[in-house]
Amino acid sequence: MTILTRQEFLNILQGDWATYVQRFQCLSPDTQSAFLVSQGYARFADLLSHIIAWFEVGYHAVERYLTDPQSQPREYDVDAFNAEAVAKVRGFDEDNVIESFEKMRNFMLEFVKALPDTAFEDERVVNQLNMELVGHLSGHNIPERE
Q: Does the global pTM surpass 0.90?
């Protein structure tokens, strides 16, 4: 795995993640549907809720790593975790979830900006940020416009 710098994480948050919703919304309805099916989600709001939940996991993990040198990554039942994230937004319309996604993305942006330089020397921190910001983007990458 490539070690990313603070600036590279910020670039991802200010670039690819900042345009994520817009890129999805620019797709045709058929392409949107096909993408969501390929991702295993019924609604775009459900996919966004999954991303929000994992961003929160990443934030809390980094906080633990910075305060406890012995802290190790937590184990998750990924399917149950994802189902819970989706259940939390059942009944919310897409605009509300998009707003929550943007709040969380901006929170992560400010969080990464404020991390001490030494945080990027901690392999656990860098791995966690890489997993949540880069890995999730790669796993849920919006297809190119038609």
A: yes
